[in-house]
User: Fold Purine catabolism protein PucG from Parendozoicomonas haliclonae.
Amino acid sequence: MTIQSFHPPRRTLMGPGPSDVYPRVTEALARPTIGHLDPEFVRMMDEIKQLLQFAFKTENPLTLPVSAPGSAGMETCFANLVEPGDKVIVCINGVFGGRMKENVERCGGEAIIVQGEWGRAVDPAAVEETLNAHSDAKIVAFVHAETSTGARSDAKALCALARQYNCLTIVDAVTSLGGSELEVDAWGIDAIYSGTQKCLSCVPGLSPVSFSAKAVEKIQNRQTKVQSWFLDLNLVMGYWGQGVKRAYHHTAPVNALYALHESLVILQEEGLENAWARHQQHHNALVAGLEAIGMSMVVPASERLAQLNLVSVPEGVDEAAVRAQLLADYNLEIGAGLGDFAGKVWRIGLMGCAATKTNVLFCLGALETVMN
Ligand code: PLP
Assistant:
């Protein structure tokens, strides 16, 4: 049998990501591929760096998109900053904090866990207690926006605490970038990674990262080589670095970078603060609507993410059947629960260009119809 071209169905993506992609972004993807050392491409790379500095609110020169998904941004941070024997305080309040622990251990570090409750923010008092008990810790790592639970942690307070104890910070902002207040320089974040497929509404597969001067100093003064050749920032800096004559490191995902450039241009046109406010506004409407049809939210109001909403599955409802029917009848994707929350919750995303009044009303109407 001859295999035919693949034409995916048109869905509305209101799960935990990927989110719907801006049509302008998919159009940018289709532009002609040029060489990744072409002067025009290099000019565009400089613009991507400036746009990412804008999105992260940072002046860090080492700000770039890693050519791989969010997990590779995570690995870039840990592989470059953790040396064998280093103690790293890892806050776990969901699936992605667990992956941070795994990263520390694979780098030969010792993970000291601050175990938090699923569906709650990381508790700064518990982190401080752990910092006091481990004065030789070098890094504090936490997830700003836990996609598995819908909880937002206080990144500003956690970074201030880490600084007080002379620790660097590694922050997961995969789901927060572009959707929630995030200030890399003002909050003193040392290493941060994100993804393109959530609130940037770009295609999946790239991971914006940024490193402070203190983080760069640590990377440049390591006693041991970074174990991963591909993710070693000392080498990547030769391609993305400041004021360097760009040299071949790996073949950049040329068209995906056009897409990222376009999504960041759109974010700049809207304004960062306006994008954060839009996510909050539609979150408020979604929560009001869900509560009006008798559903309840899992995360306490002050710790909720606007862009990822955890809703309890009502008693006696087959959650997988509801999701399957939403997909079949409405082409609407919402997410299932992960880990401790599997089978108990739905995760409704309002990310990037999916955070609209139309989507909120569509989702509420579809959910109510399917459940009755
Ligand atoms: N961290 C968080 C908080 C995430 O939500 C995700 C993906 O959903 C990741 C890390 C991993 O990103 P990716 O799936 O792009 O590798």
